[in-house]
Structures are given as structure tokens and as C-alpha cells.
Amino acid sequence: MKILYGMQQPDEGTITVNGETVTFNNPADAIARGIGMVHQHFMLADNLTVLENVVLGAEKLYGIGAKARTKIKEISDAYGLNVRPDVLLEELGVADRQRVEILKVLYRGAKTLILDEPTAVLVPQEVEALFDNLRELKAEGLTVIFISHKLGEVLSVADEITVIRRGTTVGTVEPAGTTPKQLAELMVGSELPTPETEESTVTDVALLKVDGLHLSQTDLDGIERVILDEISFTIHKGEVLGIAGVEGNGQSELVEAIMGIRDPDAGVISLDGTDISHAPTRARREAGVGYIPEDRHRHGLLLEAPLWENRILGHVTERPNSRGQLIDIKAARTDTERIIQAYDVRTPGIDVTAASLSGGNQQKLIVGREMSHAPKLLIAAHPTRGVDVGAQAAIWDHIREARREGLAVLLISADLDELIGLSDTLRVMYRGRLVADADPATITPEELGSAMTGAATGHLEHTEDSAADHEDDAR
Amino acid sequence: MNKLTQRIDKERLLLGIAAPLLAIVAALVVTALVILATGKNPGAAFNDMLTYGTASDSQVYILNKATTYYLAGVAVAIGFRMNLFNIGVDGQYRIAAFFAAVLGGALTTPGWISIPLIILCAMGTGAVWAAIAGVLKVTRGVSEVISTIMLNSIATAIIAYLLQPGKLAELQSGGTVISTKPLPKDSYFFQIDTGAAGMLWGFIVIAVVVGIAYWFVLGRTRFGFDLRTVGQSESAATASGVSVKKMVATSMVISGAVAGLIGMPTLLNDSHQFSNDFPTGIGFTGIAIALLGRNHPVGIALGALLWGFLERTTNHLEFEGYDKEILGVIQGVIVLCVVIAYELVRRYGLKRQQQRVGAELAAQAAAPTQKQEVA
């Protein structure tokens, strides 16, 4: 994908666009050939209008005035994108932002669109709208490359599916004659795993109690923004509490507050009966909190350090990594070998840098590391994001296994199937509040999705009596 | 599997040596061109440098110089490992040496008490001076680059103010040199007599100890691991439970304490007083040497020796009729080349490793994949 967009150069092989062999040295070359990319993480400026964002960097094409506006309108109407050029970007939701990104690419004359995991940040309803947009684009004769881990989406939107596993093409299939199961088998090379928990292992021993957590932040303009508001929940031993929500509604901050990276303004966090509201991160980790961060590159790994040093990261004060003040290199290395075996981290050795592993293997290493210190509480933020289906199943298995042994898990994910499948209890987070809860046994992704946009609150089951008494703690 | 690990390691070693080698060769080529441009023969110049630089009295001179440079390199490297750019090593060591000299001049105790006191005073002063920058960074977010540069100037001013007759200094009998009260003979550090080649400063032992301590603390202790973690990724360090602010302040203090040692070889082994011709600018030399030595204890030692060698031999070149500015040119070019070469080699190494891992895994995966396609 990076090669197609000119961000990396291939060692061998050729790229052919419209029957012509081309080489891309940088993204500009790719754009010149009509290839545009919509990144998973949007590259937009919040303090500019939609028009300004679109024009930025492409001023030469249609100027920055009326001509550009006309062009944007024209594209927007042609593909049903519904973009309003004069709105400030910060006022837009995720789905709208994505449309701006698509428009940006089209504005630059792209005839081939690459979409990298475009649905990761969308709720089901928005996904449908995006697919409508994509069909529109297709109808107008554009080519779309849609990259996704989600089988159902690929099957519903694509005309042809190519499965890539470990850097090689495994097969190309027609969606019409393929079931999700067959596709998954191609992807993993074996049976499709489902994120289902078996029997409930929830005990009545409360492990993590969060009560009235409040966090606000003053931004550069001096305006105070409330990030977390009145967050209260309890996780018991052996329970998985899932938090659903569109990204950016305070989930990351909640995790950081529980990990001690951010200091809450008010509220109490207690772990196993001890108040840890303001304890330093290291003390919390030593007390048995495992952490799978949402951004493994920034928070979970030292990319240029070897694997065995990454195994020490975050647990430097604990055995087998250290004895007293000294690092026990030998024991840490031996234990890294063990993790690699036990968690099936595919690597030629423990001396390669973390950066040279694939995302899935990096994640397995992190999971292995966090599980190796007998955690009481595991905070798993998007534990299987950007991870191939095989590794995903393995990670789910590890979480389930630990849960059976009394581990409490706080699971935050954008993958609703994962949330519903793994959680014992579900809460929905919207604008810094826990606005709704649901029973994962009965809820559907669509119902959950509507709560994620703030459309529904309270208990998401239609039985009258339980809705009433849950209304309170949801607020 | 094991085989590949070994191969990667060997390759990493090779890459590690490749960068400085590449830099020095490039520097030699550029220097040769400069000498050619001045209308002289570079071959003869290099030849002269080699024969003169390896003479026994030169060896002692170079080792003495390198002792000072090594300490400077380590002081800077401690900051570098942490992603801190301590430009203030220069001011830290000068102000430390000054106060240590004042204390040393005033002490009348026997040497075994005075010498440790003088050294501790120097380390303490350096640490305090660096701590100002550290505290400013941690509490107010002031860039350590800016604050340490300014602290350098303040140190210069303070020394100039106090180094006056009637304040903390006196006019020497010759009448031209102003200096602190000379250290009593008892407070001289031991030297090794190498005969005709001259005196080898005993402080080289301390420098070696500092080098070993640097290696041990960084590579073998929890503290060192935390420090390196912060240097590699502040966000990962925070998430893993390292208090970044505390680490910044601590490492600044340690860097300053080591910086305090820089002036000691000169003070205790050579000048025995702080006068207005006390060597300046060694802090900046330390930056170049830390870069050259890749922040590695042995690398810094090699860098320090190279610097001493260049200084010694280019001084001699001047007598042979070459321009003395050659020294600056060689040093400048080496540093530039080193920075570029390291970055190139680092990127190449990273990419190569990724490819290797990819290739290895693809080979592992090949068998089941083929089966899939048949089915």
C-alpha cells in the first residue's frame, strides 16, 4: 500500500497504471498518476475550513477562491459526498471528516483511491453511508482499493477480493461465490475464530472501582474542555468490561487516568481495595495492572531496541528482569525466548529490533509481556487493531484464558464484534460520559452503534424495569 | 534460527564500525583536497602527522589531552542518551574548575583529604549549574539548549568577576597572569613518569573509572534502562511508568557532575591554579567527541584519542609550513561526516533488518501457503 502511494520503493516487481509501467519515487508521483490515498488517521487541520483543508497543498490546481469552491461543489455533488465547504473542520464528526479526506483526494484528480481501514473509526450506520459513497465512485468509473480486516465489509463492497498474508498474495476471489468462512480460511490458513466467551467467569469480588472520575483540560485558547465526566464503574474478578464508543470520546483519557499517566481532577480509582487515584504509573504496574496500549508504537514499544529490551519495558522493577537495582540481562533474555514460544511471536530471534516485526507479532509480544507478570487487571485498548486474523484469535484466547483465572479486563475497542463477543458487561462512552449500558448476550452491533452516536442512552434493552434503574448510573 | 541471529549481530557490528570509518575516510579526502587547494602536498602532510603523532612524547601528550576530552565526551553523552542536548557542559566545567581551584588554594589539609574534596567540590558545582537548566526544563518547559547556552555566558561573567585581585584571585609574581591561589604541592594528583616522553597524568585512571561506571550504570542497572527508555521514546517511557521529569532533572545533574570533572586533570595534574588562560571550549569539543563515539564508552575514548592526535599533529604541521587552520577543517569535516554517516548507516541497517525478518518469515510461511492455493 505504501509502495502504491510512493511512500516506499519496491525491491522488485512492477506497477502498471492504465497499461503503462510506472515507478513512484514519492507520493507526488503517485498523485500525478491519479492514485490517491485516504489514510487511516486523517491528515486534516482542525482550525481550517473544509475548503481550506481541501485546497491546502494543491493551490496550483484551481486557486483558493471561487474556482476551487465550484470544483469542490462539483465533486461533492457528482459523488453524493454532501460536503459543505465553509464549515470549520473541528465542527465535523468522524464520518464527515472521512468524506473530506476522500474529496481531497478526488480534488487532486485521483482516478484510483486507496482506502486504508476506512471503517475502523465508523459506527455501522456510517459504514453503510461510506459504502454508498464508494458505490457512487465506482459508478462514475473510479477504481477503489479497499483495505480492511473486516470480512463482512469486504464481501459486501468489493467486486474482487485479494487476500494478502505475510506479505504474499494468497489468493484472489469473487465475493459472489465466497462465504466469510472461506475468506477467513484464506486469511488465516485455518478455521475462522470467533470472539465468543464461553461460560461466565464473573465473580462478585470487585477488583477495580472507578467512582466519579472527572478530568478536564484547558486548551490553548483558555477554554476548559471536559474530557471525562462522572465516570463510575466496577470490574469484578473474572469479568471483562467492554467500553464501546467512537474514538475520541474520552476512551484514551480514561485509560490514561487509570494507568496514572493523567492525573484526574476528581474521583477515586481503587484497585483491589487500595486507593490508587494519584499513585505513580510504576506503582500501579507493580500492583498488577497490565496494559496493552492503543498505540503500540508510541506507548508499548521501543522500536529501535531489541525484543529482549522491549520485554523489560514497563516491568523493569520486576523479576525476572531485574534483581535489586541491577538488570538481569540473562534472565530477561531467557524469558523473552519463552514469550516468543508461548505467544507464537514470529521472529528470527530476540536480538532483532521491535520495528522489524509485523504489527501482529509486535502485539503478541506486548500481550505476552503484560500477561507474564500475573496481572490482576488488564487494560486492553484496541488489543487486536491492525492485527491479522490469526494473531487476533490468539490474543482473544489469551484474554479468555486469563479471565478464567480471575483476571479483570477493561476492554476498549472499535471492533463491535470483538466487544460483544468478549465482554461480560458493556458500557457505551459518548463525549466523556458513560451514556448507556447493554447486555452483550442480546445486543446487536447496530443497536450499539446508535448509542455510540449519542442517539440512545440508558440501558439498551427494551425491558422497562431494568431501563429505569440503569438510567441513573448511566448518567 | 540461531544462525540468522548471529549473522544479524555480526552485521550490526560491521555497520557500527562502518559509520566512523566512512566518516574518517571522507574527512581525509576533504582535508587532502583543502591542502591541495593551498598548493601543498597532502601526502607529505599526512605522513608527517603519522610519524610525529606516534612518537613517544606525542603519545603521552595525546593521552593527557584525551583524558580531558574523554570526560567531556561522557558528560555530553549522558545527556544525549536521554535526548537532552547539554550544551552547557562548557560553562559547567569552567565554573566547577574555578570554585574547585579556589577551594584547593585555601585548603591546607593533607593531600588525601584535599584531593577528594576538590574533586567533590567540582562535581557538586557542575551539578548545581546543570541542575538550574534541568529544573527550568522540568518546571517551566524551558528548552535545555537555550538555558544552558545562556548559563555558559553567565558562568563566563561570574568567573570574570571573581577572578580579580582582591576578590578570589591574586596577581602572580610575573605580573601578567591573574589566577586563584595555587594549590599546595600536597594537593597535586599523582603522575606517571615515562622518562623522556614526559609525565602521564594520573587523572587518566579517574577517566577510565568514569567510563566503566558510565557503561555499567547505563547498560546494567534499572536506572540506566529507564534513562535509555526516555531517550528512545518519551511516550513509551511514560506509559511504562518512568517519571520523565524526574529522569530529565536527574540526568542533567549527573551530566553536570561529570562535566565538573573535565577541568580536574588540568587543575590537579598541570596548572594547579585557575588562571585567565585556563582552557576554554572543551565542552563543545565534548559534543563532537560524543557524536563521534556514538555515545558508547569505548567509542568516546577513541574519539577523544583521535581529537588529541589531530591537535598534536596539526600543531606540528604549522612548523612545517602548513596552515594551522587545517585542524579546524579536519575536525569540522569529521563531525559533519560522522553525523551524516551514522544516519545513513542507521537507516540502512534498520531497513536491512526488516527485509531479513520478512524474508525469514516468508520462507517459514511458504509451505502452508502453497497447500492453501492448491485447495
From TrEMBL, chain B:
CDD domains: TM_PBP1_transp_TpRbsC_like
Transmembrane intervals: 12-38, 58-80, 92-109, 115-136, 145-163, 198-218, 248-268, 326-345
Entry-linked InterPro entries: ABC_transp_permease
Keyword Transmembrane helix: yes
Compartments where found: Cell membrane
Bilayer topology term: Multi-pass membrane protein
A Pfam family the protein falls into: BPD_transp_2
Keywords from the UniProt entry: Cell membrane, Membrane, Transmembrane, Transmembrane helix
Keyword Membrane: yes
Protein name: ABC transporter permease
Originating species: Streptomyces cylindrosporus
